[in-house]
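Annual report, structural modelling task.

Input specification for the (~{Z})-2-methylbut-2-enedioic acid complex:
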Amino acid sequence: MIEDSELQKEIIKIKKDINAVILVHNYERDEVQDIADYIGDSLGLSRQAAKTNAKIIVFCGVYFMAETASILSPDKIVLLPEKDAGCPMAEMITASELRSLKKQHPDATVVCYVNSSAEVKAESDLCCTSANADKVVLSVAPDKKIIFVPDINLGKYVAKITNRNLILWNGYCPTHAALSTEDIIKAKKLHPFARVWSHPECSPEILNISDRILSTGQMTTTCQKSEEEEIIIATEMGMMCRLVRDNPHKKFYLA
Ligand code: CIZ
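The model returned the following structure:
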């Protein structure tokens, strides 16, 4: 078996030879984050790659992320190392389903979450991330109807904080949906001094008992600024690698 470190050296050598840039999503494992040129959220990474003069983008993430990078860098070749890496939530709505929904609400503005296929994005008026969904929704005139797809949990959260009525789709992230309020309560009992940080793809019940609701990018920046020393993290486990690496003196517990 080839050691991780040997493989990493080989990957970095090939990357230089072919003028590629390696983007690694916050959710990826440590050994993949180790070889990254950039680590971040899907939009941030795609924006960074667009600014480089690399000819090839290697996107260590899922399909919709590679598509996003390709949309922002149409002249670059985008490679997805694990070609079957998909996002179940993105697969929960198709372009034709969105077209049917638009027919039912012809005057509505469509806001789609970045966790969606390029075809669904093409049917939408605006695209948002979990970090800017509230701002994007508030940019739509108050008298306009808004369709928000595909994540029902992010949609409910954004409807609440913006006080806007959103027409929602029943998409969700199975990983965040697998978390229950009991998991959070259990983690709080085990770590009574810890704060709870949840991703907005979690259920409204979990968000209601969380101290902060943050996208992956917001988790990294908030962690560096805040004085909170012990944090229960309610999102994909790969996020822990990034947080532990950037904040070695803090304690993190995966919900
Ligand atoms: O936009 C992203 O990269 C995802 C999937 C989540 C987030 O909160 O950053």
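The pocket of (~{Z})-2-methylbut-2-enedioic acid is lined by residues 41-43, 114-115, 129-130, 199, 215-217 (CB under 6 Å).
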